[in-house]
User: Which sequence fits this backbone?
């Protein structure tokens, strides 16, 4: 020992229990899962019932399809909830007898449901696991993961959704001792290398006061470490900030995402939508979740104006004229394919012209209707185009219809014009033969 150094034993109060005591206590508390009356037996029964019929995975609005094997590469996006929004979320939670976490969970579930994830939203959440005061100062790992199943069916109001979340979460909290790993073993869901079992979205809220490290002669600060991996498809972590007087100071958030599925820009937009949903919800909690605003002004403008600006100047030409122009420009390009056969634009135009001349010789022209009774085929396309080239209109007749139905359609067509008495009947049969090359 160097000169001048003095070893001082820390004056820590003795712990009431050690971690080994906790593990023995947990085993004694949970009991045997084969004993239906044990804590483990009752909790397994609860979770089997609670998670019965749970979808294997939820349909997230991803940019890419899910790979067969997850790479676990990931990124993260930071976002903020203002102090004003934080305060209103707390007020809404108190009014509903719920926690801030429950309100945030309702907001996340509402957003995912709105984005196409369905109405059965499973969200994983870490829980401290220190259910006894003797464990508060004990060093060790007690965290467990709960599967919080959220029902958004029926387009409920946000206030009603909080009520659903509160009821289901309180039940889950009262059955939190069952380790998640044991739950997965017992439920034995379809396992996949592509996604996490039982849930793919995680939500965590850190609402403890930030701990500051104070060392004599040293200054210390927390330095965040940005990882490049993701355990889940999406993981939303929020931390409460408090002002000097203890009032709401905002929520700092991080949304971690799987790079296999999402682009960073999409997750930035997703984080912004979560904030907007929560803002809309606290402003009008009795509005149904399907009517909560999730789009920014720029996104709404893109959807309603930019993407619908489809007006174009069209040439004053008929469909046959437009087709003939395309056939002249690209005669060898494939125009139609069916059952391994195909026709180029030039071939289709030539065969349609041949049949059109035949129909005109039969008297087909303006105000004429020609019946077409053909199965799906290349000839069907030839016949429809030929009738238009001849100047008539076509009456599609499904060969699968009963003869009585076809007869009625023909008769009804005849009543449409005295000069069309035989057009639909006789020309239809001739068109069918001519379309086949007869």
Assistant:
């Amino acid at each position: 020992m160097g000169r001048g150094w003095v070893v001082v034993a820390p004056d820590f109060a003795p712990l009431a229990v050690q971690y080994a005591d906790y593990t023995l206590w947990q085993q004694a508390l949970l009991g045997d899962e084969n004993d239906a009356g044990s804590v483990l037996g009752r909790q397994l029964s609860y979770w089997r019932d609670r998670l019965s019929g749970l979808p294997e995975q939820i349909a997230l609005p991803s940019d890419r399809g899910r790979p067969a094997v997850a790479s676990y590469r990931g990124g993260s996006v930071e976002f903020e909830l203002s102090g004003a929004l934080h305060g209103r979320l707390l007020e809404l939670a108190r009014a509903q007898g719920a926690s801030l976490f429950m309100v945030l969970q309702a907001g996340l579930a509402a957003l995912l449901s709105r984005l196409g994830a369905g109405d059965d939203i499973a969200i994983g959440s870490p829980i401290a696991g220190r259910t006894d005061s003797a464990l508060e100062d004990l060093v060790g790992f007690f965290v467990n993961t709960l599967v919080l199943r959220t029902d958004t069916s029926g387009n409920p109001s946000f206030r009603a959704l909080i009520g659903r979340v509160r009821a289901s979460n309180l039940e889950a909290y009262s059955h939190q001792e069952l380790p998640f790993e044991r739950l997965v073993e017992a439920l034995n869901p379809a396992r996949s290398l592509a996604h996490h079992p039982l849930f793919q979205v995680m939500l965590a809220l850190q609402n403890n006061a930030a701990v500051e490290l104070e060392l004599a002669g040293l200054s210390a600060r927390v330095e965040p470490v940005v990882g490049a991996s993701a355990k889940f498809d999406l993981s939303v972590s929020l931390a409460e900030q408090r002002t000097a007087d203890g009032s709401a100071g905002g929520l700092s958030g991080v949304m971690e995402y799987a790079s296999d599925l999402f682009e960073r820009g999409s997750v930035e937009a997703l984080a912004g939508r979560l904030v907007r949903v929560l803002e809309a919800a606290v402003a009008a909690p009795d509005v149904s979740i399907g009517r909560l605003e999730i789009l920014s002004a720029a996104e709404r403008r893109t959807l309603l104006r930019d993407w619908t600006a489809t007006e174009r100047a069209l040439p004053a030409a008929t469909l046959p004229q437009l087709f003939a122009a395309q056939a002249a420009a690209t005669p060898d390009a494939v125009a139609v394919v069916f059952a391994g056969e195909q026709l180029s634009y030039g071939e289709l135009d030539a065969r349609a012209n041949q049949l059109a001349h035949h129909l005109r010789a039969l008297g087909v022209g303006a105000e004429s209707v020609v019946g077409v009774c053909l199965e799906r085929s290349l000839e069907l396309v030839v016949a429809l185009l030929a009738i238009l080239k001849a100047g008539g209109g076509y009456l599609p007749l499904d060969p699968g219809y009963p003869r009585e139905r076809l007869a009625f359609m023909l008769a009804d067509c005849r009543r449409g014009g005295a000069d069309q008495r035989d057009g639909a009947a006789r020309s239809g049969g001739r068109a069918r033969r001519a379309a086949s090359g007869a």
